[in-house]
Amino acid sequence: MYKVSQTLKNTREMRNLTQEQLAEMANLNRVTVAKYESGRVEPGAGALAKLADAMDVSADYLLSRETGDHTQIDPMVLALAQRIFEDKRLMVLLNVASDATPEEKQAATAMLQSFQMQRGSVKA
């Protein structure tokens, strides 16, 4: 079982937040967040609630109490999964990609990056 410090740090990093950004979002001091992540200090109930709210997870998730079917899923991952399941074409692409060779995956990635660059230049 993870400690709060590990779950807190992993969740922050998953969201590409710095300690400073998380501290600001949770209305806490950066040094305090650093102490929580290092395990030197355990967050109290109030701080835990602020951190959970700032990262859109439950306090139970940070305490690693949620298990099994009740595990908190990262909202960004959930949104992506929903988009994939709603668009059958994306499902087909993922199924094909999962069976592709490394060379085929590299070629497909290059092609998609090219499309993305073209879309970016059209929008500008």
Protein topology:
Elements: H1 4-14, H2 19-26, H3 30-38, H4 45-54, H5 59-62, H6 75-86, H7 88-98, H8 102-123
Helix pairs in contact: 2-3, 2-4, 6-7
Short recap of the structure:
The protein is mostly helical and 124 residues long. It has helices spanning 4-14, 19-26, 30-38, 45-54, 59-62, 75-86, 88-98, 102-123.
Helix count, per DSSP? 8
What is the N-to-C succession of helices and strands? HHHHHHHH
The assigned structural class equals: mainly alpha
CATH class of the largest domain: Mainly Alpha
Helix content range: over 70%
Q: What gross morphology would you assign?
A: elongated
How many strands, which pairing sense, and closed or not: the largest β-sheet?
none
Query: Spans with pLDDT under 50 lasting ≥5 residues?
Result: none
Provide the CATH superfamily of the largest domain. lambda repressor-like DNA-binding domains
Going by CATH, the architecture of the largest domain would be Orthogonal Bundle
Straight-line N-to-C gap:
48 Å
CATH topology of the largest domain: 434 Repressor (Amino-terminal Domain)
Number of domains: 2
Task: Estimate what percentage of residues fall within beta strands.
Answer: under 5%
Total strands: the figure is 0
pLDDT average, as an integer?
A: 84
- Gyration radius over CA: 19 Å
